[in-house]
Amino acid sequence: MAGTHDEQHLDPQGPPLDGPAWTHQHWRDLTYLHWRVDPDRVAPLLPRGTRPDVHDGATWVGLIPFTLAEGALGGRTPGVPYLGTFLETNVRLYSIDDDGRRGVVFRSLETERLAMVAAANAALRVPYKWADMDRVPGRDTALPADPTGTTITYRTRRRAPGRPSSEVVVEVGAPIADPDPLQHFLSARFGAHTRAWGRTLWVPNTHSPWPLREARLLRLHDELVAAAGLPGVARSRPESVLFSTGVHTWFGPPVVVG
Question: pTM, whole model, 2 decimals?
């Protein structure tokens, strides 16, 4: 049975981690594209012990391109050059477990770093995929202090049979001073559920509230959502389009669900 939406639990400020951080990284220049879907459609795609989290009677599918920067082990260590900074595009679902932990479930995560694919799959069975990726402006180009009106293009093509691709072009809009309940639901997520080594795990993270902005979708051609088990969803325009300049996030050790 699908979870129910409870706004009081969607605090945009992440809770403190239980113990030292295992890793930290910056998430920068994110675009959020989201589609409303029936919870029954995504329930079979979620790990055992979790169910779809819902808002306004539906759950949501997200396509999120961004730059992951300055990733490193520990909570205070400097970011790793080259390996710690790369483009990423993920397809994600929204989950809740019996302990009320709201999170995301990644159906795929495209990255240009082959080492990240191997490490994430080996450690936690997180479905990273090696891809050819680029962004305009380039990932090493800082956006203006006020990016309103800036156009960003994200492109990716998986290095695998079928080679699903995605191109997202957006124009960044004005800051959102008071995010609405749906915007909190889609962004205030402080952990991920994953299935690894015969167990469902919860991987917690924490960060400050997202600085959300409006965004206008100029172009979308996507095959990643269909490749993630949701054909037809990305053929329509997304119902929610947002942008964020990003946050600095810390991850704690995984815990077993159930």
Answer: 0.93
